[in-house]
Structure formats: structure tokens, C-alpha cells
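Sequence in, structure out.
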Amino acid sequence: MGLLYIPMAKNKYYVVWHGVEPGIYTDWDACKQQINGFEGAIYKSFSTREEAEEAYNSSPYIYITRAKKNAGDNSKVAMNGSQVVTPPTDRTDTVLPLPLEVQAESLAVDAACSGNPGPMEYRGVYLRTGQVVFHFGPVHGTNNIGEFLAIVHALALMKQKGVNMPIYSDSRNAILWVKQKKCKTKLERTPRTEELYQLIERAEKWLKENKYTTPILKWDTSRWGEVPADFGRK
């Protein structure tokens, strides 16, 4: 999905990560139309277009986290739309409002697809800092394929860098496909999907040729909310 700009005299930019139509807006009224009545809307204003573009292409958790106003209080408060979520006081290992069961020293992955199939992209987020570690797409595909490729991308990247930490995914299908070393998609192989199929074959080959001990954990969306790598386009 491309960035959406609406001309306005004031030099202010509103990033909507999770709303009716995610994008960048320069009109507050237009921004409000994307977030009013939208459950779990995530948005924030920026003073320059450059800052807004960087934010839109990054994890919102980096930008919706701010220090409490109380003097001498170094804990964090995350703004999720109009809802304030305060991480537990004993959760000092992350800037994100993570559940106590979730390990901060880990990666979360997710994919987004506009249509099924349609333009698909995926990314991985380091939960300790909220940093987007990798991002790929868009390419024509499906959400399940993106979830599968995201896990394999995370596995390969960690092996290349010599690190090992859990991977959280909210896709049971993708986790199962990785364990079976096979992307069991029903997407037709056509000239339009050929690039994606080459990526799938490369991922399957990597799984068959490499051993790993990395835990791949199911993100419990019903209890914890959206996975931090979520693109906010549901």
C-alpha cells in the first residue's frame, strides 16, 4: 500500500498505522475519519514528512511509546489510540507493553496482504526495542505464504548473525509449514506469482539444508492483542 498524502497549509503529518485506511495524512479531519470508531486505532502526529515516512515504514511501537510526565519516573506509557497501556512496573526489559509471558529477547513476525491473493509484505520486529529488523515486499501472494516466509527469514537471519532467540508468530499454518519444511499453499503458480514461488522454493531448501534450535512460538492474539509486528490493516 502506498503512502497517502493530502495537501494542507499547515506543516503537520499524521501517521495512521492501524485504521480504516492506513497512511500519512496532513489534514487532522481526514486523519480522524480513519480512526474514529475504529477499535485499536494506532496513530501519531509528526512535524516533518521525512519523520512521518520513516515512522510509517517502521513498527508503530517505536513511536507510540513515551516517557511518563512524572518527574524522575523512567517507566514507559504506550499510547494506542486514545487508550493508555502501562507496562507492568517490573517489566523493565522492553519499551513495549508486552505480557509477562512474552520474552522481550525475541523476534515477532507478521505479514499483511491486501486481498487474497494480493500485494503481500512481511516483517520482523525485535521485541526488546520495537525495532523493525527486516521487511520484505510487497509482492503478489497470500497472507499465509507471507507468514511462512517471515519465519524462515527470521531463522536464516539469526543463523547468519550467530544469534538465537524465540520467534513469535500468530499463524498456526505458517508454524506448521515451517515444521514440515513445506509451504502447502494452494496459490496457482503463474507468471505473476513466479517471483514468489522462487522465494518459497528458496525457503524450503533452506529448511531442508539447515538445522536450528530456535523456538517458534504461537502468539496468543486472543489474550495478548495483535502481535507487535502487525501491520494494522485488519
